[in-house]
Amino acid sequence: MSTTPSTTGSDDGPGDRPVVVLGATGQQGGAVVRALRERGRAVRAVVRDPAGARARTLAAGGVEVVPGDLDDAASLRSAMTGAHGVFSVQPSSGQAGSGVTDEDEVRFGLAVADAAQAAGVAHLVYSSANAVGPVPTGVGHVDTKARIEEHVRALPTPSTVIRPAAFMEILLLPGSGLPDGRFSFLARPDQAMQFIAARDVGRVVAQVLAAPSRWAGRTVELAGDALTGDALAAVLAGHLGRPVEYRRIPDDVLARERLLGRLAALVDDGRLAGRADLDALRADFPFLLRFDDWLAGPGSALLDAALRPTSGGVSLR
Ligand SMILES: NC(=O)c1ccc[n+]([C@@H]2O[C@H](COP(=O)([O-])OP(=O)(O)OC[C@H]3O[C@@H](n4cnc5c(N)ncnc54)[C@H](OP(=O)(O)O)[C@@H]3O)[C@@H](O)[C@H]2O)c1
């Protein structure tokens, strides 16, 4: 975990003011909503389609659902009126089918931060990614996040940047090879790579928003486990009760699929492999799941799905 000096001071208690959550119908925002609700916090979800099934599920869980779009700054300002905190996450060009460009992602991220500033919220949490660092990566949807981080830090609004490692969820996307007793990913067989459960992103964010003065001004590299390619296969084999052979995604695929190839290069040079201090993180966030626990818990349905034969290729975001 890297830290910069904390902005200290007494916490501005939330009272009944809500936390505004972007991306609440998605993976990270959904986990943040659940974790905040588990703590009894008031939540306001900004959604594009309030009548959609996911928005209605949020509303049924006691969440205030308001219409808004990342591309409509006025809707963001309106959504943040009277809020105590904001969780900011954006879709990226790295997500197949998102239709989002890198310029879109940056514009969205800056708009959320500016709206939080204009609304005078007590704390903003921005979700970035672990490969972000002082040196540009050349991967569009990583370098976008460096630009958003910089903007967030420059604002007077107290903020925390979290940099999640690769999600455990992406390990079980279609195309992993598991139905055939194989498992393929970006790491080399003997190279450790860090991962985090999406559930834990939510829990960490809820804990940060419960103690804003402790976390303000900090950048938190986030992971729950670190495993080599061979170790990933061994954990999977333990759950399946049969051998699983690890093979890194083949070089010809990495050469053909440009984004995958660039991500693999970032794993090789260590930036996407992760640099979170797992022991220090566990001291603050003892709930962080290891891959083994995640497979037995929140990941079990995804493991079942990954065992069904598919014709899909590997897709990472
Ligand atoms: N995969 C990884 O391992 C990993 C690791 C670290 C960081 N990341 C980063 O995580 C981010 C994605 O987070 P996620 O996985 O939580 O995404 P996700 O599950 O795809 O959810 C995206 C959310 O954004 C909302 N959204 C999309 N466009 C919008 C718009 N114009 N206005 C308002 N809301 C909009 C979607 O709402 P709708 O329901 O309206 O579509 C949805 O709630 C990306 O930036 C990615 O680079 C990924």
From TrEMBL:
Entries under InterPro entries matching the protein: NAD(P)-bd_dom_sf (IPR036291), NmrA-like (IPR008030), NmrA-like_oxidored (IPR051164)
A Pfam family assignment: NmrA
Sequence ranges assigned to domain NmrA-like in this UniProt record: 19-256
Highest taxon of source: Bacteria
Keywords: NADP
Family matches, as PANTHER family: NITROGEN METABOLITE REPRESSION PROTEIN NMRA FAMILY MEMBER, NMRA LIKE REDOX SENSOR 1-RELATED
Protein family according to the UniProt entry: Belongs to the NmrA-type oxidoreductase family.
Protein name stated in the entry: Uncharacterized conserved protein YbjT, contains NAD(P)-binding and DUF2867 domains
Organism: Klenkia soli
